[in-house]
Amino acid sequence: MKNYKVPTLTIAGSDSSGGAGIQADLKTFSAIGTYGMSVITAITAQNTQGVFSVEELSKEIIKKQMEAVFDDIPPKAVKVGMVSGPEIIVEIVDSLKKYNPEYLVVDPVMISKSGYSLLRPEAKENLIKYLIPMAYIITPNTPEAEEITGIKVESIDDMKKVGQKILDMGPKFVLMKGGHLEGDAVDVLIGKDVFEIYKSERLDRKNTHGTGCTLSSSITAHLALGYDIKESVRLSKTYITEAIRYSFDIGKGVGPVHHFYKFE
Ligand SMILES: Nc1ncnc2c1ncn2[C@@H]1O[C@H](COP(=O)(O)OP(=O)(O)O)[C@@H](O)[C@H]1O
Ligand SMILES: Cc1ncc(COP(=O)(O)O)c(N)n1
């Protein structure tokens, strides 16, 4: 059930073309029916054809944004996306520890669909050491899961094995996304006493800019609305599948998914 008075927060990078990052997150928070807020970590000059430049914000302004939000409108659930550099991660982790939100969804954004690195290599260690262990749920795609564990992921069996390794790093749940594998689009949810497979048909679509951002924001919004983890992932898997089905051509490259397909 929608409730536009339930606050949700995204801590992520800005995508000037509106298909991924903060912009996708806020659209998703609204489409699912929550009150969306944002802490911007970095600004990208980006469109459907690629990422052309990235400028990180200072850790001071990130801290101030977190204070401003949490002191006034404590979010029910928080999502972290692009975090860019090692100092920013430390700042975000410190603030999250201080405010201790009920649900923390971590989307370990590393490389854009267009192949641009959105996480500086020297930031990987802090992501693994500090951010991943505090997540309620982390949502890696297969290349990200490989980066985190150093193990190849080429099958659903690999997703289970590597997902378990990531679970051992401390998060409560891991959602291994299988969009980069062949065949059906299969995601695997792993927790201490939880193991669920979410399968959908693979849609033959070119416009998949922002799929990961949209899925993790949808999970965040559903958790904030009171759904449990399995139901939040199930409803979000349906949402992303339909958003991909109705994705559309805008711009000259890889266009966005349709966040508001339900409202057409
Ligand atoms: N062509 C597709 N058809 C249907 N679902 C897809 C397709 N590509 C990705 N998905 C789904 O979209 C979500 C994002 O997946 P993925 O592409 O693995 O992550 P990311 O966008 O972070 O790279 C997952 O639920 C995945 O199963
Ligand atoms: C600011 C920002 N955050 C995240 C992504 C990843 O999205 P995708 O993997 O769909 O390119 C992106 N391109 N830009």
Structure, briefly:
38% of the residues lie in helices and 22% in strands. The chain is an alpha/beta fold and 264 residues long.
Describe the structure.
This protein has helices at 21-32, 59-72, 86-99, 124-131, 142-149, 156-167, 211-224, 229-245, and strands at residues 7-15, 35-47, 50-56, 77-80, 103-106, 137-138, 173-176, 185-191, 194-200. It has a single domain (7-246), classed as UDP-N-acetylmuramoyl-L-alanine:D-glutamate ligase (3-Layer(aba) Sandwich), CATH 3.40.1190.20. α1 crosses α7 (211-224), α3 (86-99) packs parallel to α4 and α5 packs across α6 (156-167). The relative contact order is 0.16. Strands 3-2-1-4-5-6-7-8-9 form a nine-stranded mixed β-sheet, with helices on both faces. It is an alpha/beta fold. It binds adenosine-5'-diphosphate and (4-amino-2-methylpyrimidin-5-yl)methyl dihydrogen phosphate. Its EC number is 2.7.1.49, 2.7.4.7. Belongs to the ThiD family.
What are its keywords?
264 residues; alpha/beta; UDP-N-acetylmuramoyl-L-alanine:D-glutamate ligase; nine-stranded mixed sheet; 8 helices; 38% helix; globular; binds adenosine-5'-diphosphate; thiamine biosynthesis
